[in-house]
Design brief:
Length: about 240
């Protein structure tokens, strides 16, 4: 073959081939070595999956996998549903339970006047010889407290004294209702308690039942001479 001496023809010929080949490669990416379009790739995956399901053995495997997935999903749902039910139950019980506790402790100084009549004063006087204490216990809850009982103990300078000894028999306390423990301490401890040279503490223990639970607690209070009142100083062992 002889050399093509027409450079213009050669350039035009190659240019024609370039223009012709470009769309050919664009429409056939496999031949050009480029990646396929996403849609073509997706369709091939779908066709492959359908062909895979055509095999009975593979179909059974897929059914087994879906069954396992459904079972696991059911277990997870049951666990979360159980937890949610527990939270709802606890919320309901918290809102619908009795709540019995000490509401107030009243204090009076008791004595006798010259005529022998019993007197009651908010502070110590020359005629007073004993300290009277009334513990008011109230149901602050929304439902009745059943089988309610309460007891209390008195301590002077940390030593238990025989007074007060009164306790309440078992009974029910309805919402907003109150019960009382009434007692006191006399001589020889009264003078020191009233002067502030001796400490006087009481421990009130309460037991009662609600719809789903039994409750018990003990509260400790100390007499404060300067204000003639009791103040809470903490909890105590339930007896």
């Amino acid at each position: 073959m002889g050399e093509d001496k027409n450079p213009t023809h050669t350039a035009r010929e190659w240019g024609t081939r370039h223009v012709h080949d470009a769309p050919h490669h664009k429409d056939n990416p496999n031949e050009s070595g480029k990646e396929q379009k996403p849609m073509n790739k997706l369709m091939e995956l779908i066709r492959g999956w359908l062909n895979h399901l055509g095999d009975a053995q593979n179909s059974n495997r897929v059914v087994a996998i879906f069954t396992i997935v459904i079972a696991i999903t059911g277990i997870i749902y049951a666990v979360f549903a159980g937890k949610q039910l527990g939270v709802m139950r606890d919320t309901f019980n918290a809102a619908n339970k009795p709540s019995v506790g000490v509401n107030h402790v009243g204090v009076w100084h008791i004595g006798r006047d010259k005529e022998g009549k019993i007197t009651r004063s908010e502070m110590k006087t020359v005629d007073t010889t004993a300290l009277s204490v009334a513990v008011e216990i109230k149901n602050f809850g929304q439902v009745v407290a059943e089988d309610y009982t309460s007891t209390w103990r008195g301590f002077v300078d940390g030593k238990e004294v025989p007074r007060p000894t009164e306790s309440t028999p078992p009974g029910n306390i309805f919402p907003g209702q109150v019960r009382y423990l009434i007692g006191g301490v006399g001589q020889p401890d009264y003078t020191g308690i009233a002067d502030g040279t001796k400490t006087f503490e009481i421990q009130v223990t309460i037991h009662y039942k609600g719809p789903n639970q039994t409750y018990a607690y003990c509260q400790k209070e100390r007499y404060m001479t300067d204000v003639n009142a009791f103040g809470v100083i903490g909890s105590c062992p339930v007896t």
